[in-house]
Amino acid sequence: MHFLTLVPVTVPAQEPDPLKDVLVQATLMELRKKSESDPKDFMAKIFASELTGKVTPFGRAVFDAVYEKMDPYAVETDHPACREFVDCTDEIREEYRTGTIDCVRLADGTVVERFDPRFRNRFSVKDGRIVQNDFGPLHHKKRSKKAKKMTWLPNYPKKKLYRSERELAETYYGYDYLPEEDAYGYYSNTAAFYDWHAIGGRWPHLFLVSEDCTEYTFGDYEGTEEETKGPEGYRWVAAARKKDIAWDVMAKLAQQRQTGAYSLLKTAYETRELPEKSFLSFTENGIQGILKTLYLDGESLETFLNRNGCCADSKYQFTPGGYLAEGGYEDSGFSFRCPKNVQEAEQEAKSTRAWALELDAFIDALDDDAVLVGVDCHI
Fold it and tell me: Could you tell me the residue ranges of all domains in the chain?
């Protein structure tokens, strides 16, 4: 699942580094050429995407600052202060003593788990008997001679399959024995909220800055600079200083966009006509998108705007799914929103408004020179 997180970082003014800029640009051009000539070269595309946001000293500094700030919250972090050992020794010992697993005795007498490739690739179990898959010209399941030479062993004791607790821990569960802990288990980051992230990513056009602004980055971006153009005199970026972001223009555009969407959806519902090849569908009393109720019959424009983060009393009207504060990660707590009636939609609007005002207070408290970064997180 992907979700947008606001990450503020401190980035001092950067000294020009024309040589490094030229080297990055040259590498970027080479990667783009490789990607265009070989569309299957995904690594070239990935590296080019990341380098797009690193063509200036400011962009490179933003990437470094975001990595440093977010590393303690990664699932696989190496940050020593964030790793907590999860002791699985008692679980392993109990499983080795009493646990069972479905197994098969192969024709040569070897006992393997049901999902061992030596069995599952060609055979399966049907009604408690082993059958061969895709048998003969009809490719059906059959109790073939090879299948009859095997024996189905449901609830086979784990201690008979594995020679020791350690083998069970390492082979079946993937736990290591860690001498420093004198136990089986693994290290976990209890503060983790993501396992992968990218600056911008699925949300590359987040902040609007004037075309004469020099401190910004497109982040991990696969598009062209032409596609980042906003209203005349502005461009869309993934990160910029708080003081350089055109919040008023962004809010006005968001209001116009969502008001237009409300009008189109309302008309579509009333006429029962949806755009061809869209992912929208009619419900009993509204229009459904992907995992979200887009419009409900009788829903007011105010409720619709509030549900979509365009609250009239919100200063910034920027509503990511979470933000990273000094004390840790804070999220909206929202799951997928699918109100079934106007009353539920109004309740969702209240929740979204409360979240928007919380974000307002968070952004207000930041220094004007703080760099605001939109980070695409995955978990």
Answer: 2-76+195-378, 86-188
